[in-house]
Amino acid sequence: MRLTILSPLCLVLVLAGLCTPAVARVFIGVVKTIEGGAVIERKGETIPVVTGMEIRQADTIKTDRHGYVGLVFSDDTRISMGPNTEIAVDDYLFQPLDKRLSFIVRLIRGTVSFISGQITRLAPESVQLVMPEATIGVRGTHVLVKVD
Amino acid sequence: MREWICVGCYLAASLFITACGHKSTVILVPDPDGSLGQITVSNAAGSVEIDQANQSTIVRDRKKPPGAPDQLAPVEVEALFGKVLSNEPPPPIHFFLHFQSNSVQLLPASSQQLSEIITAVQRRAPTRISVVGHTDTMGDKAYNIDLSMRRALAVKQRLVNSGVDDTFLDVSSHGEENPLVKTADNVSDAKNRRVEVVVR
Question: Residues B67, B110: one domain?
Answer without folding.
Answer: no
